[in-house]
Amino acid sequence: MAVQHTSSICGNGSVLDSKDYKTNYSSKREPGEQNLWPRSLARKWTLTLFMGTCLLYCARMAMPICVVSMAAIFQWSKIDSGLVLGGFFWGYCFTQILGGYVSDRVGGEHVLFISATSWAVITAATPLLSHLGSHTLAVMTMNRFLMGVMQGVFFPSLASLCSQRVAEGGRGLLMSTMNSGTHLGTLIAGGMGSLILDRYGWESMFYTIGFLSGLWALFVWQCFLKGEINLTELTKKSKSDKLRKPWLRYLKMSPVWSMVFAHMCTSSTSYTLLSWLPTYFKESYPQSMGWVYNVIPWLAAIPAALGGGFISDFLINQGYGVALVRKTMQFFAMGVSSMFILLLSKTNTCPTAVALVSAALGLSSFSSGGVSVNVQDLTPSCAGALYGFMNMLGAFMGLVMVSFSGYLIEVTLSWSTVFSLISLVNSTGLGIFLIFGDAQRIDLGDYSQVISI
Question: pTM of the entire structure?
Fold first, then answer.
């Protein structure tokens, strides 16, 4: 039974016309029951999701940016800081598959709304929780764990939506747009964080981001979801249905497990850079202004992400093989970017370090046209669950690498070992993907392709 959305936006003008949004969340999707987004609705959702990913990374980056100030106040060592930062990835692992599976069944919009509402509350409550008692380290680690739990469902939900609502030749640009939202979020958090830390203290950082995230969730509810679908009934329905396809069986196929391994590697190295770069610049170049290294690299990554998505879709639409395009984009994302990361060990000036980090982060965003969208090429029928699985592994490896990096820095007193580790992991994942990766769809026997209306 199709569900029709007809909500309006805050008084005037319809956000969703009835002809724009007809979708089917039935467990049995037959040809014609599931439709690609019309162009007008796709634009509305793309802009909304772009802002959502932006705020998601603002909330995620709040702790890495504030951890230096918090460590000084609460007397944390580098190992303690690594435990707090790594707590996020423990929680992030738990809800990846669940988020993707539920999104495949009932629609990612509702999962995204619940996720945003939860992480908004957790973020805003962080300063209050830090002063509850003497066990601040344990409380903040648990706080980061819960943040990871609620943010863990976000990207599997995006993958599910993209695989079901976007054609193959447009997926790279959509996912790259979402990826640019993560860079903009990091950019805003870095720029805003530097100002807020200097003028109002670290607590205001969490209050501001929590408030903005809550506003985004309210907008999604009021303008897209309110009164349209009974989420409780859909959730009960998804629990009562049996899993339509044993998606785990696909892991036996070399294109799938090589994609999972490459994604695991690139995710973990990205998390490590995201967590430790602010500390690297603050300690290596203490005289430099925080806004320089917290803003410029992420500012450069935004056009790079959009450009990478445009290039990948352009090449596919021009007739180049999808597998060749995915591997080429991943070569730049993991191979070439690692060269710039290694060069960080050789530089002694802040401008050069900022330029190298900017190049590395910009190139790494090309992954949105590579392994990040490859799951939608191979298994669009269960892209949410499978993406959740490989994102879970990426988060787990990120947990290990973030914590281990803190240990390496504490013991060796050198950042070069961390940069070498990142390059080694990237090179290994890239080699596996180049050898075994593919983009040939493998679930055709189980799934009917979505069609446009």
Answer: 0.74
